[in-house]
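Q: Structure tokens for this one, please.
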Amino acid sequence: MNGDVNFDFGKNGSLDIFLPMNVVIIQSFSWREYSKSELALFVQCEEYIQQNIITKHFLMKFDTLGNLDKNFGNLGIVVVDSIVDGTISQYINSFMTLDGGKFVFSISKLNSQKVFSELKRFDKDGKLDESFFLKSRYPKIIF
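A: Here is the predicted structure, written as tokens:
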């Protein structure tokens, strides 16, 4: 509370973050406090995979010592969504919030005709809650 560095968190009180090797561009990111000493990082990025650029949202969860939480998803990382087909042009206004220890994501994708929105929830271990899923489509927005 008084601004002192917490040397128990990360190396020397700082957190080094290493993204997957094939991430070429980070488009946006946001931090959330998961508990009093755990953090979650929500990232939108572009990955270069087999000569294709794939836009992804993924979530990284860190434990109380600043290490990736190995019990969360695949070694601390969960892919929330990705654009792999050519029909979607971009993500718009995606965000993450917490709901009783679960991660809730609102994902919106835009193509030339429609906006596609999804609401997804993942538990504390990074598993998708199949019962909590909403998809919707909206007509093209004209400005």
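A few notes: Strands lie at 23-33, 39-49, 52-62, 77-83, 90-91, 95-99, 102-110, 114-122, 128-139. The chain has one domain: 23-139.
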